[in-house]
Amino acid sequence: MVDMAFCAFDRRGATESNPSIERLSELLQSLDVGDQEHPDVALKHETEWCLSAFRSGLLVWENVEAEEGHPRHMTDVPREKVLGLWVKLAQGDIAAVEAEPWLPGYG
User: Fold this and answer.
1) Edge-to-edge order in the sheet of strand 59-63
2) SS3 of 37, please?
3) Which parts of the chain register pLDDT below 50?
4) Which sequence spans correspond to the domains of the chain?
5) Please, how many CA atoms are within 13 Å of residue 90, restricted to the half-sphere of its CB?
């Protein structure tokens, strides 16, 4: 398997390249603290596909560079599921993430 580049964004927007699964889990745990100004953490693959997770369980899937991008979302997503999808995205398995039951828009 070819290693793809990915990065994670913490709640303040700081970027970390190719973080470990343990670090991704820590980023998700940071959602435990309410912060309306910085509501999400995200993982973005080098293809510009991005999964943003929110404290409420909202998960947003979008290509941040696509001009005709169609953001999609799921609600009440458990953090374990988010972590699993982040790992798939980090591995470049876009098709597996696409196969989820996404709803249109940002939720």
Assistant:
1) 15-17, 6-9, 40-45, 49-54, 59-63, 72-74, 103-104
2) coil
3) 1-2
4) 6-104
5) 18
Q: Do 93 and 86 meet the contact criterion of CB atoms below 8 Å apart?
A: no
In the block, which residue shows the tokens 């970390």? 16
7: buried, middle or exposed (CB in 10 Å: 19+, 13-18, 0-12)? Answer: middle
At residue 39, the pLDDT reads 93
Kind of pairing between the strands at 49-54 and 72-74: unpaired
Pair 82, 54: CB distance under 8 Å: no
Kindly report whether the global pTM for this prediction surpasses the value 0.90: yes
Please name the residue that has the structure tokens 């603290």.
33
Two structure tokens written together for 33: 């603290």
Spatial contact of 2 and 92, defined as CB atoms under 8 Å apart: yes
